[in-house]
Structures are given as C-alpha cells and as structure tokens.
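Good morning C.,

I know you're traveling, so I'll keep this short. The sequence:
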Amino acid sequence: MGRNTVTATHADKPADKSFSRVLRLVALILAAIVLTVVLGVVVLAPVITCANAQIVPDTAMPDEYMENWMKYISDDALITDIAILGSHDSGCIDMNYLAQTQDLTFAEQLKRGVRYFDIRVNKTAGGLRIYHGPVNGVSYLSVLEDIADFVKTHPDEFLILDMSHFKNGSEPEVFALLEEYVGTEHFLINDYENPRQAVDTMTLGEVRGKCLILIDRDETNFAGKNYLFERTNDPEKYKNAVLTSLYEKKYNRRTASYFVENVIPFYIESFKSTEEGLFVLQAQLTDAALVFGPRYSESRLVDKMNAFVYGLYASENVGNVNIIMRDFVDCEKSALTLRLNLAKGTVKPEFTEEFQAMVGKYIHAEAYTA
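The tokens, ready to paste straight into the viewer:
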C-alpha cells in the first residue's frame, strides 16, 4: 500500500511543474501586453496630441457671400457642374477623438458654405442620435432644427442630405421627423422614369430652396417615400442612383501623399466612366490602425489636399469635380472649393469680381504657390 502511495505522489510532480510553467508563461504574456500598452501610450500619446492640436475649430468668420454663395451662381448652371463643399460624418461633433470628424454644428457649417451633408442616425434609448461606429453624438433633432432654419431663411440655396447609414431600425422616425421639421415642400420629388438622367440635367434655378434626400440601397431597405433618391458606391450596379460616392477603405487608409497623388486622381478617373449624376469626391483619410483618429489623419492630409484643390482651378480635371467631401470643414476648405466655380464658369458674370474677392479672403494662396 505504502509503495503505491509513494508512486502516486511522484506521478503528480511533473504535472505540478507543467502547470507552474503555464502560469509563468501566462504571467509573462500579460506583462508583455501591459508593457506594450504602456510604451504605446508613452510613445503615441504625445504624437497624437501634437498632431491633433494642428486641427482646431475654425476661427474665421464667414461673410454673407459664403453663407449665401449660391445666390451668385447662374440659374442655368447644372447642379452636377457646380463645385460644392461637403462634410464627412457631418454631425460627428462632441465625440471622443477616435470618432469625431467635425468641430462645427450644422448651422456653423451651413454658414461656411457646406451644402452636402453625410448624415448617420442611430436609434438609442435616449432618442435618435448621430453616430460614428460605436459612438453616439449629438441629437438628430438639433441637426434638423439647423437644417430647417437654414432652408426657410435661404431660398436661393440648395442642400443635399445624404442619409447614408442607419442603426437599430431608425429609418421610419428619421424621415417622419425630417418631414415634420423641414417640410416636404422643401424636398425634391422623385417621380422620374430615369432619375439619374433627370438629375444630370437639373439646373440650380430649378432646385433653389429645395433639399435632395438620398438613401443607399446597400445600407437600408427603407424606400417608402416619394422624395427619396438613391446614392451608391457602385453606379454600374445601381443604374438609377443619382449620386456616386466612390470609397474603398483600403485606398483611404494609405499615406496622405499616396492618397492625394494616386487615390484622388483614381476616384476622379473612375467617375468619368459614369459621367451622369452627382459625384462625391471623398477627400478624407480613414485611420487604418484605429488608434490615431480622424483629427490626426486630417493633420497629415490637410495641407496636401488643400493644395490639390487649389491646383484643380487650372487643371483639366476641374470639369469632373462636383462635391468635395472633407473632415473638419472650415472657411478655407470652403473657399478653395467654391473658387472652382470661377474656373467652371458657373458664377454669374456680374458677380465674378465680388465672388473672387470673397474666396480670396480665406485662401492662404502663398502656401500653395511656393
């Protein structure tokens, strides 16, 4: 009996040693993870903080020309020919640094000439909120109030509301409230046999005081309203989509230099094959590491992208650019985009000098001509 007991005790010892080794290995792995996180914070935090500090809320004050700039565009200008500033993730303000893409409210963006808005709404326990990924932001109602106030007081302007993403079945309430606050009398009605061709021939004079409301068929099945038009990333697949917004995550995750020198021209060339409807040039980077955030990405991109837009004025591609969508919109980004209307010939001749003076006030030309 004793012999068997001793044998059993010896048999247990190797298992004990093996378990101890596993514990030590787990401890080492955990320690390595903690050390990596600490080093990452120590190294990356100053980099992110310094870069983020370069993109600050706009302090320039827009004048009446910028707030009412479409008043100075010819009635017969095609809406597909007009250079328009758009904002990416338009309502993503007052969020953490990983989600925030704008500093200005809709009212402030509208005053700075933004006429295209990328709107994403989540249905939460606290009501409808603008969202970006897992992060919820400002109330959707506050966005509607800004839009309604502007549309009702600026009859010469035209807005494009791209309801690109929805979450938790928010669609019915999103559009019911849109109708309640803004009013269907301000919506373009989609009663066209070929909507893309119809929009391609629309003039600004025909749509002043109106909103073009867009949904993406890949993002929602909701289509119960006669004022809804389609937008798409794949114009060949969706022939009735009136707006093409090209985006490939792998391309928008490249370095700022590569993005401006290669991806932006690629998007422009790709749209040329469609040549119908509105075109959004998505001029914002996507954080590939999910660590740095949009403000950091914009700090890398802003000078290069501003220089590109400035150079479009004398470029053969100026005629192929329509809506330029940016993160952290400001007066200079607006002026750089609106300036293209002078090259396009869409500004009323009698207002050319005034329009030139307006955009010139906000553009730091020396930064792009050195």
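Safe travels,
E.
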